[in-house]
Amino acid sequence: MFDILSIDGYDMTQKKSEILQNLRILYSIRNFDYWEKLNVPYVKPYPFVGCVIEGMRKPLHEVLVQRYRKLGKIYGHFEGNRPLLSVADTSLLREIFVKDFHIFPERRSMNTGDKIIAKMMSVVNGEDWKRIRTIVTPTFTTGKIRRMVGIFKECSGTLVENFKTITEKGDPVETKK
């Protein structure tokens, strides 16, 4: 019914496609000056994917250590076009998670498909986070943690010994039993 429109041999459908693609690219990079405006060091992002490419090429912990060494304890990065702030300063993390928790109840969502992980305090948001924090907070007072250090050391020693035994045999380690 409709033929491809052309003016003087130029394909209008192709031109529309090019315009649409350029608009998609512009839309995907619209926030990429976010950290620069705030004068925060940041990882340079790529259109559409942000900074996630590095995490596909190397283990995530290596990527995070490399970024920390290059950019410092506080830096910005992007997940797609969404700006994220990474903080590795323990005193600032204490401020965020303990003293100013009421200001930071929302964290990025992580849909892992695992029911247990979905209920972790570091993953939940809003009212669920506040409820879990209220339950957990009395458990982690300085005095109680000090009394638990011996138990932590004993359990971690047992864990290390178990891993040594398993790896010496060459058996796989089942971590989700």
TrEMBL record:
<keyword id="KW-0503">Monooxygenase</keyword>
<dbReference type="GO" id="GO:0005506">
    <property type="term" value="F:iron ion binding"/>
</dbReference>
<protein>
    <submittedName>
        <fullName>Cytochrome P450 3A31</fullName>
    </submittedName>
</protein>
<dbReference type="GO" id="GO:0016705">
    <property type="term" value="F:oxidoreductase activity, acting on paired donors, with incorporation or reduction of molecular oxygen"/>
</dbReference>
<dbReference type="GO" id="GO:0020037">
    <property type="term" value="F:heme binding"/>
</dbReference>
<dbReference type="GO" id="GO:0008395">
    <property type="term" value="F:steroid hydroxylase activity"/>
</dbReference>
<dbReference type="Pfam" id="PF00067">
    <property type="entry name" value="p450"/>
</dbReference>
<dbReference type="InterPro" id="IPR050705">
    <property type="entry name" value="Cytochrome_P450_3A"/>
</dbReference>
<dbReference type="InterPro" id="IPR001128">
    <property type="entry name" value="Cyt_P450"/>
</dbReference>
<keyword id="KW-0479">Metal-binding</keyword>
<comment type="similarity">
    <text>Belongs to the cytochrome P450 family.</text>
</comment>
<dbReference type="InterPro" id="IPR036396">
    <property type="entry name" value="Cyt_P450_sf"/>
</dbReference>
<keyword id="KW-0408">Iron</keyword>
<keyword id="KW-0560">Oxidoreductase</keyword>
<keyword id="KW-0349">Heme</keyword>
